Amino acid sequence: METLKGIAVSPGIVIGRVFVLDDERRRIPKRTVRPEQLPHEHSRLWVALGESIAELNILRDRTRSQLGEEAGKIFGVHIGMLSDASLTRPMHEHMDRENVTAEYAVWKGFEDLVAVFQKLPDPTFQTKVDDLRDLSSRVVRHLIGEHASRLPQLSTHAVVVARDLTPSQAAGFDRRHVMAFATDLGGKTSHTAIVARALGIPAVVGVSHLTEHVTDEIAIIIDGDRGVVVIDPDQATRDHYEDLIEARKVAQVSLAEIAKLPSVTADGTPVSLLGNIEFPDEIEAVLKMGGEGVGLYRTEFLYLTGQQEPTEEVHLAAYKRAVELAAGRILTIRTMDLGADKYTQAQMEDAERNPFLGLRSIRFCLQNLPMFKAQLRAILRASGLGPIKIMFPLVTNIQELRQGKYLLNDVMEDLEEENIPFDRNIEVGIMVEVPATAIMASIFARESAFFSIGTNDLVQYILAVDRTNERVANLYNPYHPAVLAMIKDVARAGKRYNIPVSCCGESAGDPEYALLLLGLGLRTLSATASSLPILKRMVRKVTIQSCERIARKAASLDSDAAVAAFVRDQARKVIPEAFDGRSADR
Hints:
- By secondary structure, the chain is of the alpha/beta class.
- The protein is 50% helix and 13% strand.
- Helix 16 links the parallel strand 12 and strand 13.
- Helix 15 packs across helix 16 and helix 21 packs across helix 24.
- The C terminus is likely disordered.
């Protein structure tokens, strides 16, 4: 048994079997298999070699016809290498000698050969290094692709373990089969983590070298409450976690009762609790958990879960469904927030050097006008069926807001000419996600219908900490006094200009942090559906006066650690059951 610590990003506990999802673009970790599994690994290697050779034959024939016989010889050499027993035999021998997977034997075999060629003085051999790495990638891709293609067909429940996962990979998981996941890399507010919470599956990220410790089918425990991964647990550990699972079920029943009650503080102040969603059908869970509507609909997942750019009609179908499920309640649709850690296929092919400071969010929209206008048309068309608010992401200067509203008016004129109904008075607001916007909140408040503070990015940019980087996860802290000061300024600007201010970052779903947000002046919180009942319990037990007292004291402290410790202590007094065992592990 081995216990590893990571970052808890999606709550819940699962006991299951591992399914490893490798990426051929990276180093393949060394994983062993049981001796009785070796014949299957040998068979996988033969099949992958055969498929690679067949693929190369097609490429050779196509190259010959288009570029001539000489160019086709390149692929002929590759075919010869993969057919050469002196290259492939050591891979099979390596599997037998060390009981390793086929993909590791292939990757290691080619890497060893690359190392030999690089040391030879003859430049002819050194030029073959690229050929070897290309062949390695080709064969490994067939091995991993064959393996990954089995994921949707799994008949048993699986815990996916990977070095890293993209948001689109996580969003594509079949929830009937994938019970939980854990990764080597990642941070608490990465969009992969956000998707895990939306799907309601436990997840732990930033578990360094986890993929090197596991192989398919080994037993594993994912503790998404405490950020713990237990590999091959003994019976006593299994029993302990089964008890915890039962205790969670009892607690969930209690929270379900809370969900039905009004969201009002002990001194009678209403606090609006809304849901963050990625997919329209999540609205049902938001309402079931006591949410009053949708504070953030992340529409970029229409792009990330498909290979093709969604058409206007695809957008419209999703928004119609959301309007139907919201049934007249608040529905805030954020325009596509692509970039950073959320890439389309086209963006992946032209990756930026520093994507979090690059062409993302509203910047991406304003440079891709046909795509942006298609989305705006769909949102406006859906607004004719029920109330919708539009929210622009990562606005950093007033001109971006004006450009977005100008384009929206353009689309309105087009729809009027086509006699297509829409809401002419649709509200347009912005995400406050960068220090520039927070500092200029009073300027933006004059031209925005509402603000929504996105703490995920705001914290990242205030503290200069990559929120997806597990190496600096300890530095990413929304309790930093500078973050609190900026949130307070934004809330003041909203009050001064009489526009609503909400928080839709992941911090809004943390009952401890919610105490601070209420004390800083916010009266609307938007979080994942699963967070809403515990938020409502907290809201119903506090007074605004006590929250303001906590916020004032927190603002006087000089470090994030001091603020976090103070707020945690205060929150534990209000709802001790929410922090049982959790705080000690953080």
